[in-house]
Amino acid sequence: MSSYETNCTISTCSLKTANVHYLPTLEGNALYLTIFAILLPLQIFLTFRHRTWGYGAGMVAGLILEVCGYIGRILMHHSPWARDPFLLYIVSLTVGPACFSAAVYLCLGRLVLAYDDRGNNNDTSIPGNKAPISRLEPRLYTIIFMTCDFVALLLQAVGGALASSAETQQEADIGVNVMLAGLAWQVFSLLLFIVIAADFLWKAHRTPESERSPRHADLRAGKGFRVFISGLAVATVTIFVRCVFRVAELSEGFDGKLANEQVTYMILEGAMIVTACTALTVVHPGLMLGERWNETDFALFPRKKDASVVDDKDERAVQDA
After folding, report:
1. What is the Cα 154 distance to its own chain's centre?
2. Least packed by Cβ within 10 Å: which of 19, 135, 156, 300?
3. Backbone phi, then psi, for 96, in 5-degree steps?
């Protein structure tokens, strides 16, 4: 990371003194910017069209950050020593994918309900009752992974703020280390999510159709449902690959080898996130599941029923009978 030598130009200073030791490609960054700028209004439209508010919030926020980040990289093409474009790029593109992870996390609970809408409260001691397919209630998946994602997002945002306000190299390093902690936590969360989601889908695959939710049988039988799961898998894996790369990159610092290899960055950061965002737009739940997306909604914090009210209703029902 340079000392922000804004008086430098390509003809007067070596790129070794710039924020990155290469001249960011104008064509490649403009291409990524164009893709994200196209996906952004599409996601906004789909969000309002299908009322996928949580999913849409994550996607729209992430795409805005991606657009800002690539604007920063394009500005760096003209002045790789300038401070503001570098910070716009590094903070936006570091934080953005955490928003896409949030959109993915919201989908697992819906998938659980599509296979088994009984929850985890079945008493298997009662003859005829089968054990739930999922190991956890649908809402717990959302609570656990959204909390993990919030921690990752918070660490990356705080680290970015510290790095952007740093006046010394030591202060900048503190910011980088906090961002690194956020990325490492995101890698752990994504890996845990992949393991748990794969475990559930494998168990659901092995469960006979007669033991799955009859209410959503037509949804599971549809081609859109299978495409939706495949798209989520592609997005999850590509975001995971990107996060592993960014952890390796930031662990070496801004002057490390990985942080200054443009081709590697454009593939393992840019191409991975373009693939993830494209997949999450093509298999948008509104397009693949339609109104069934809202039918598989659930309450994160369901209200407890008043026992006295329930008993009173039961007593009246007996009297009426």
Report:
1. 14
2. 300
3. -50, -50
Instruction: Give the integer Cα–Cα distance in Å for 61 and 310.
Output: 43
- Distance CA(175)–CA(153), nearest Å, equals 14
Q: How far apart are CA 123 and CA 88, in angstroms?
A: 54
pLDDT digits (tens, 9 = 90+) for 127-167: 344 667 888 888 889 899 999 999 999 999 898 888 777 77
Side chain identity at residue 75, one-letter code: L
d(CA 280, CA 33): 17
- Under DSSP, is residue 256 helix (H, G, I), strand (E, B) or coil? coil
Note the pLDDT tens digit of each residue in 48-82: 999 999 999 999 999 999 999 999 999 999 888 88
CA nearest to 177, candidates 154, 151, 156: 156
* Surface-to-core class of residue 220, CB atoms within 10 Å of its CB (0-12 exposed, 13-18 middle, 19+ buried): middle
Identify the residue whose tokens are 């799955």.
212
pLDDT for the residue numbered 250: 87
| Spatial contact of 113 and 216, defined as CB atoms under 8 Å apart | yes
Which three-class secondary structure state does DSSP give residue 18? coil
Which DSSP symbol is given to 250?
H
Number of other CB atoms surrounding residue 105 within 10 Å: 26
- Count of other CB atoms within 10 angstroms of residue 29: 23
Distance CA 315, CA 278 (A): 56
* DSSP code, position 270: I
Instruction: Supply the pTM of this predicted model.
Output: 0.86
Q: How far apart are CA 73 and CA 88, in angstroms?
A: 8
**In contact, 281 and 103? CB cutoff 8 Å:** no
Q: In terms of residues, how long is the chain?
A: 321
